[in-house]
Design brief:
Layout: E1 2-9, H1 17-27, E2 32-35, E3 43-49, E4 54-60, E5 63-67, E6 79-87, E7 90-94, E8 97-101, E9 105-110, E10 115-119, E11 123-131, H2 139-142, E12 150-151, H3 155-169, H4 179-200, H5 207-221, H6 230-236, H7 241-247, H8 255-272, H9 281-287, H10 293-304, H11 308-313
Antiparallel strand pairs: 1-3, 2-5, 3-4, 4-11, 5-10, 6-9, 6-11, 7-8, 7-10, 9-12
Length: about 325
């Protein structure tokens, strides 16, 4: 977890710019910050985080941000970010897309790919960063939405935006024992928003994507069934197993890998839940469809770098 951080850089404090940049590199995979105003960079930020969510409120004057993975030295972990525009306009580009973000819009971007953010006026936004594996959607699916503005004034987008603003008002809670649960609520809301947006279709609708969303929802509903496998999933949706494999073709994962990943994420959440502290690791692993506790412990460590017991004993903010 990240203790709350608050920094301010005024027009007469440009000697503090290296410190500000260093703080940004501690919070995010490294970025190049280029001031564009004659007075230099003027900015305020406050930030706090749990192990699954870093939330930062940033207000600044005109500047350019560049992300070039593999060029800037520092942590290069696999994260997504979303930003909620609060004031001013920002131009954001990733891949072959460029969008102008106005107040009340949400946008997702992938820190493993180059992107640019820039504004020629004062602006502010909330930016939430989280590990890709924490999202209840495959990487290849969520990335389809990179740099596409999502309205935050209706439906699930409005609920997510309201939740982010509330978290911002109570930012220190993210670094407390409550942080894990608050982060999980955010990730569930975001997964729902992305799934809803993709099911409607970025470019007018896609029957294939809609079918995949139904399959992903079915998998999440049946993760506790040890018999969950491609054959049962295909049968439940009146598909051939081959067609099911084709649905997953663009996701960057396979059906079986996705089932295992979702089960591991569920078990990891339960291991961090203080209300389940009396449950054994074996009981939790069995509830998530792992019949062999030894196998569960091995793949848990392979996936997360800690044994289930080590994860459970670590601070969970």
């Amino acid at each position: 977890m990240t203790p709350p951080i608050a920094l301010e850089l005024g027009p007469g404090q440009q000697d503090l710019l290296p410190r500000f940049r260093a703080a940004i590199d501690e919070l995010f995979p490294p970025l190049q910050i280029v001031p564009l105003a004659d007075e230099g960079l003027r900015a305020r930020l406050r930030s706090a985080g749990s192990r699954e969510l870093q939330l930062t409120h940033l207000a600044a004057n005109t500047h350019l941000v560049e992300r070039r993975p593999g060029v800037h030295v520092g942590k290069e972990h696999s994260y997504y970010k979303i930003s909620l525009q609060l004031a001013g306009e920002v131009t954001m580009s990733q891949g072959n897309r460029e969008s102008t973000l106005t107040p009340g819009t949400i946008v997702l971007y992938d820190t493993a790919r180059p992107y640019d953010l820039g504004s020629d006026e004062d602006f502010s936004f909330l930016v939430a960063m989280f590990p890709k594996h924490a999202l209840a959607l495959p990487d290849g699916i969520a990335s389809d939405l990179a740099a596409i503005p999502i309205p935050a004034d209706r439906g699930v987008g409005a609920i997510l935006a309201s939740y982010l603003r509330t978290l911002d008002e109570h930012l220190p809670l993210l670094g407390s024992q409550a942080g894990a649960g608050l982060s999980r609520t955010f990730l569930d809301l975001l997964s729902t928003l992305i799934g809803e947006t993709l099911e409607v279709g970025v470019d007018g609708g896609s029957a294939r994507t809609a079918a995949l969303m139904r399959v992903l929802a079915y998998i999440d509903e049946h993760l506790d069934d040890p018999g969950l496998d491609p054959a049962t999933i295909a049968a439940a949706h009146y598909l051939s197993v081959r067609h099911l494999y084709n649905l997953f073709g663009a996701t960057g994962t396979t059906v079986s890998q996705w089932i295992k990943q979702r089960r591991l994420e569920g078990a990891r959440r339960d291991l961090a839940d203080p209300l389940r502290a009396a449950e054994t690791v074996a009981a939790i692993s069995e509830r998530w469809g792992f019949e062999d506790a030894g196998y569960f412990s091995r793949i848990f460590k392979q996936s997360f770098g800690q044994t289930p017991g080590e994860w459970r004993r670590a601070p969970q903010g």
